[in-house]
Design goal:
globular; eight-stranded parallel sheet; alpha/beta
Length: 301
């Protein structure tokens, strides 16, 4: 397995799409069912990964992200964190990915940024999640789906308390540069990423025409701090509709072909890591991978 850190700032990399859509088509609807399937019926998870692997992403993401104690309770897997972590990596190993990313989702606990006790409680949630993988082989942690800078700060502090593994951090961003929660901005999240040890600053957005502004804002923020992080963009697929005549603001990625111009636009904006999410299928991943195959990260003037 290659060292992902050696590729930072060099060649373009595509990250596998979530497999939840494939699992839903197989009748596995809820996160509780997904965790249970991973533990007792891993072949179902493997089948969902099979086509995603064929699509050609360099980075594969674990099938579940519920590794904090609070999330384990929520999905009915309390006390099964080690078994879930082992099963997740075992499924990934079957496909011999170039790089394995361990996804960790927000823990979901209430957070009072003015309370030390609340901050410590949240931080330790992520530290305990990271500890599940201390003796495992993987390439990076992937903090994904965060919507506030405070929660992201706790997650980064928790991981850095127990590991020096590379961290890819991603937040959900609105069109105006604000975070999806309405609390905080993309620039504030980038500052947190730089200060607390992330290697890659990622954002999930709806349309590629926002990418240049978000990438520019990230670079300005990082330059002011003397930091140098790679960039990642996740494109949210809302609805697949082969009959749609063209991209709209409400549904810009209505077919896999729309990933090609989006990937080129994102590369031009200085983004290195690309991912399709939401209702994306392996075909979306395949178009991203084919579009940037053999390309280096574009220098941004």
């Amino acid at each position: 397995m290659a060292d992902l850190a050696l590729r930072f700032g060099k060649d373009m990399l595509v990250v596998s799409s979530p497999i939840q859509e494939a699992l839903r088509r197989a009748g596995i609807e809820s996160v509780c069912d997904q965790a249970l399937a991973l533990l007792v019926e891993p072949e179902t998870i493997e089948e969902a990964y099979r086509m995603e692997t064929v699509a050609g992403p360099q980075c594969m993401v674990t099938p579940v992200a519920d590794f904090t104690p609070a999330r384990l309770v929520a999905v009915g897997a309390e006390g099964k964190g080690e078994a879930l972590a082992e099963a997740a990596l075992a499924v990934m190993a079957e496909f011999k990915p170039q790089h394995t990313l361990v996804e960790i989702a927000p823990c979901g606990l209430p957070l009072d940024p003015d309370s030390k006790a609340s901050l410590v409680e949240n931080r330790d949630q992520y530290a305990r999640a990271a500890q599940l993988f201390c003796d495992c082989t993987f390439d990076a942690f992937f903090l994904n789906g965060f919507t506030t800078a405070d929660d992201l700060k706790c997650a980064l502090m928790g991981l850095r308390k127990v590991t020096d593994a590379p961290i890819i951090a991603s937040v959900d961003v609105q069109g105006d540069g604000g975070l999806a929660s309405g609390r905080g901005t993309w620039r504030e999240a980038v500052e947190v990423m730089a200060e607390y040890g992330a290697a890659v600053a990622g954002f999930t957005l709806a349309t590629p025409d926002q990418a240049r502004g978000l990438a520019d804002a990230a670079r300005e923020t990082l330059e002011a701090r003397g930091a140098d992080l790679c960039l990642m963009a996740t494109l949210q697929v809302f609805q697949r509709d082969a009959k749609q005549q063209g991209p709209t603001t409400e549904n810009p990625y209505y077919s896999p072909d729309t990933m090609m111009p989006a990937a080129l636009e994102l590369r031009a904006a200085g983004v290195q890591f690309l991912r399709a999410a939401g209702q994306a299928t392996p075909a979306y991943t395949g178009v991203l991978a084919a579009t940037v195959a053999g390309l280096d990260v574009a220098p941004v003037l």
